[in-house]
Amino acid sequence: MANRTGTAQRPNGQTQGKICQFKLVLLGESAVGKSSLVLRFVKGQFHEYQESTIGAAFLTQTVCLDDTTVKFEIWDTAGQERYHSLAPMYYRGAQAAIVVYDITNQDTFGRAKTWVKELQRQASPNIVIALAGNKQDLANKRMVEFEEAHAYADEHGLLFMETSAKTAMNVNDIFLAIAKKLPKNEQAGAPGGGGQGRRLVDGDTGPKAAGNCCK
């Protein structure tokens, strides 16, 4: 796919602004709520019992920033260890990543640190990484302190928010923060990944992106 500059037209002929398309991948241990975060962001829904992702699921959603529309190509990866070897296929060429852990499970925070280290070593050099401490609605069962995760994120240059897919707390905000940090006036990077394991979900509420980046 060639990199092209895109502008969308409003019905009255006025230019809506630039359209930028970015590949975003979600990583983290199984059952931390990656699919629930994506479902909340894309469709505004939450299912108490979410089936485990097999391989990866593909979804799209847009975020509007002033004169720019950011379209996310979202790869929601499986957290089970047996799928770990597939992860590079999904984060290769990604401009952004959300590494998710469960605030009620210390082990998932340790696993999140491993994912961050892998991304910083093997993913695109300028990738924007956000750390999401999910299940904030279960704060009374907290095992990972906010201050601990925040300090880790600061030390490693990560965006950080605690989220709740159940209550929608900070779900849109974390994607919006990533969208604001992505380089919209320079080449964004390699095009999105191939169609392996691709599953489209009706969440593409914005205009179609014209290319992989915009200038």
From TrEMBL:
GO terms for cellular component: early endosome. It comes from the Eukaryota. It catalyses: GTP + H2O = GDP + phosphate + H(+). It is found in: Early endosome. Pfam families: Ras. SMART domains: RAB, RAN, RAS, RHO. The keyword Phosphoprotein does not apply. One of its GO terms (molecular function) is G protein activity. Residues 186-215 are annotated as: Disordered. InterPro entries: P-loop_NTPase, Small_GTP-bd, Small_GTPase. This is small monomeric GTPase. Keywords: Endosome, GTP-binding, Hydrolase, Lipoprotein, Nucleotide-binding, Prenylation, Protein transport, Transport. Belongs to the small GTPase superfamily. Rab family. GO terms for biological process: protein transport. Its main location: other. Its EC number is 3.6.5.2.
